[in-house]
Amino acid sequence: MRSLQDSSSKSLKNDRINQLLSDQEKIASWLVMEATLAKAQAKFGLIPKEAAEIIEEKARIENLDLAKIEAIKAEIGHGFVPFVKVFTEVCGEDAGKYVHYGVTTQNIQQSGQLYIARQINHEFKLMLADILDNYSSLAKKHAHDVMAGRTHGRHAVPITFGYKVSVWIYELSQAIEGLLECEKRAFQIMMGGAVGGFNTFPDHGRDIQKEVSRLLGMPEMSIPSRNINSHKEEYMMHLALVCNCLHKMAQEVYYTGLEEIGEISESFKGGTVGSSTMPHKINPKLAKGIIANADKLYSTLIPGLYSNIRLFEGDSSSYLLFDRLMEEAQELTNEVLIRARELTRTMHVHTDKLKTNAWLNKGLDNAEHIMMELAKVIGKDQAHQLLYSISMNTELNYQSFYDLLRQEPMLASFSDQDLRNLIDPEQYTGLCAQLAVEQADHATGIASALRL
Fold first, then answer.
1. Residue 409, Ramachandran bin (φ over 0: left; ψ between -120 and 50: alpha; else beta)
2. Listed residue (244, 243, 240, 232) closest to 326, CA to CA
3. What is the widest separation between alpha-carbon atoms in the chain?
4. Domain boundaries defined on the chain
């Protein structure tokens, strides 16, 4: 496995994706392509209909001698021809003559890989639907739970935890939109022959490719050149963007779970061991797996871009690298998604700590709130200067923010209760709760669509 495994890997896995990434599934996809190609060629009279029916009937992996394929591969040094030879024998003398008829290795292998990738992507969408539902629950549950907003690593103005989740929802939904939109380019069928020019069947080549695409429910490459990999690179980039959103969420869980902050943490199951030497350790496990696998996923993009730069009409060094890069990207994405699904389902939000931290600066985070009220009377610039002076006095001279506000003549018209309301973080969260609920509903809608 090219993904990064950890202690969560045994309990958290997607067996369907593991199956789809197996060598047997790869060979099975080649059989699907050969059978579908034969069926399309028979439709246009290029091979006998009876031969196509036999090829389709025999296109089962249990009919292949896999050991023989490996033996021939060791002898001739080609990764695909042994499969063709063994499958040709399985189909018999008459039908076997029309196996792999008029196409090249890359046509079958790449189309097969993208046929599998489309199925893997369906599994990804189901996991993303679960993550969005989990986000929706978090956003609604914590729509009003106040916490400190932070910019540049420091307190800004108050928000709610539901609002924080709404940001996660919005960004992830944008990434998912890109992933869905690229499907029509990513999962394309190519049956153009040795260089993509339909040299073997100029009269019916395009019709055959279109028919294969129709039968498999996949788009076709208008120019089925073996030198084009940009559609696969685009797909990998969209996977990286999806994982990047979840990486950001995991990073927040990882660091705001610090004892000094203590706002969000992974759920902890009794009996789980965090360290071989420190008995007290309760470590984040899901978040670290998301972070590590996402980090590695990004590294596949650069060699992919370089791999797409090859001269002429085809280059096996490009195919070899790109096939492995894409499989690696899928494995890494799988590890990110299965952990993100569990983390968002079981995440523990410490609402009391959120509120405590929101009050950490004893109302100073609401300086903007007071400034905007005062601006109605003396204007924004003058109000900003005044609140800046009071804030710096509070921060640098360790004064009480409330006491300094109470002593300021410009605020004399405000009652004690008015000032206490103005410095209360819960009184200055704007539309955070509303945005949280809106995005929660948005997440539910996208999740439903992803499951269709």
1. alpha
2. 232
3. 102
4. 15-356, 364-423
Contact yes or no for 128/242 (Cβ under 8 A): yes
Q: How many CA atoms lie within 13 A of 339 on its CB side?
A: 33
What is the pLDDT at residue 7? 60
- CA–CA separation, 108 vs 59, rounded Å? 14
Residue 425 and residue 158 in contact, taking contact as beta carbons nearer than 8 Å: yes
Are the C-beta atoms of residues 412 and 406 closer than 8 Å to each other? no
DSSP-assigned letter for residue 409: G
Are 51 and 25 in contact by the 8 Å Cβ rule? The answer is no
**Cβ contacts of residue 123 below 8 Å, gap of 6+?**
14, 16, 17, 20, 334
Instruction: Take residue 221 and report the two structure tokens written for it.
Output: 């490459």
pTM greater than 0.85: yes
Name the DSSP class of 311: S
Residues 6+ apart with CB under 8 A from 204: 41, 44, 46
Residues 6+ apart with CB under 8 A from 397: none
Which of 124, 239, 265, 241 minimizes the C-alpha distance to 171?
241
For the chain, first and last CA: distance in Å?
Answer: 30
CA distance 67 to 86: 10
Q: Which residue has the tokens 């009391």?
A: 352
User: How far is residue 284's CA from residue 265's CA, in Å, rounded to a whole number?
Assistant: 8
Please name the residue ranges forming H helices in 12-104: 15-20, 23-43, 49-58, 66-76, 81-96
431, 421 in Cβ contact below 8 A? Answer: no
Domain 15-356 has CATH 1.20.200.10: yes
Q: Using CA atoms, how far apart are residues 202 and 211, in angstroms rounded to an integer?
A: 15
Instruction: Quote the pLDDT of residue 277.
Output: 81
CB burial of residue 46 (10 Å; 0-12, 13-18, 19+):
buried
pLDDT digits (tens, 9 = 90+) for 207-224: 999 999 999 999 999 999
Are the beta carbons of 334 and 14 closer than 8 angstroms?
Answer: yes
User: In this structure, what token pair is assigned to residue 87?
Assistant: 């499958």
| Alpha-carbon gap, residue 452 to 434, rounded angstroms | 28
- Report the candidate in 144, 184, 177 with the shortest Cα–Cα distance to residue 162: 144
**237: Cα separation from own chain's centroid:** 9
List, for residues 102-157, the tens digit of each pLDDT value: 999 999 999 999 999 999 999 999 999 999 999 999 999 999 999 999 999 999 99
Residue 81 tokens read as: 């021809």
Contact call for residues 142 and 437 (beta carbons, < 8 A): no
